[in-house]
Write a structure and sequence with these properties.
Bound molecules: zinc ion
Shape: rod-shaped
Protein name: Molecular chaperone DnaJ
Number of domains: 2
CATH superfamily of the largest domain: DnaJ domain
Order of helices and strands: EEHHHHHHHH
Structural class: mainly alpha
Distance between the termini: 86 Å
Strand order of the largest sheet: 1-2
Radius of gyration: 33 Å
CATH topology of the largest domain: Helix Hairpins
CATH class of the largest domain: Mainly Alpha
Pfam families: DnaJ
Strand content: under 5%
InterPro entries: DjlA_DnaK_co-chaperone, DnaJ_domain, J_dom_sf
Low-confidence stretches: 73-88, 96-112
């Protein structure tokens, strides 16, 4: 007859009675894990591996074993994902700064985005949607050149600035094959 105080196997996720003792090892003389028969065998097989590890390290290893020791996260991937999200609002060509905006510095990694930041900002500069057609871009460019031309703005320097931005935006889009 089993004593009612028999502890549950201490192997993570196991509910079998912990009928077998396994020495925790060098760092914990006289201390034991309580395992079921299957897990005391598993433990003994990997005893050398665990020797000298702290309890929490052993427990973490066993928990990993439940999922086949596959890495549950990758620092690199997570970091990269976060960086990408922020970079989406970056300003590789200093457009924002030029327009009195909010440049966050040069980000060469943006080069590989499907619609790069510079092109997105160029479209925004022209007041166009991301889906603007070449014809729409050309038409808007002509319209804005007329609107901001210094000749029709009495030599207004802010108009000149806007015209420069329009021309730069158009040339960015042209280089990228948008129009
Ligand atoms: Zn067990």
């Amino acid at each position: 007859m089993r004593k009612p105080t028999c502890p549950v196997c201490q192997w993570p996720g196991c509910n079998q009675p912990g009928t077998h003792r396994a020495p925790k090892g060098r760092m914990a003389e006289g201390e034991y894990w309580q395992y079921c028969i299957d897990h005391v065998r598993a433990y003994n097989q990997s005893y050398n591996y665990f020797a000298g590890m702290s309890d929490s390290a052993v427990y973490a290893y066993q928990k990993d074993a439940l999922t086949g020791h596959r890495p549950t996260w990758r620092m690199g991937t997570r970091e990269e994902g976060g960086a990408k999200a922020t970079d989406g609002r970056s300003d590789p060509f200093g457009f924002g700064a030029e327009m009195g905006g909010h440049a966050s510095g040069f980000q060469p990694r943006e080069e590989t985005r499907p619609i790069r930041t510079a092109e997105r900002q160029a479209l925004e500069m022209l007041g166009l949607e991301m889906s603007a057609t070449p014809a729409e871009i050309k038409a808007r460019f002509k319209e804005l050149v007329k609107k901001h031309h210094p000749d029709v703005n009495g030599g207004d320097t802010s108009a000149e600035e806007r015209l420069r931005n329009v021309i730069q935006a158009h040339s960015t889009l042209k280089k990228a094959g948008f129009c």
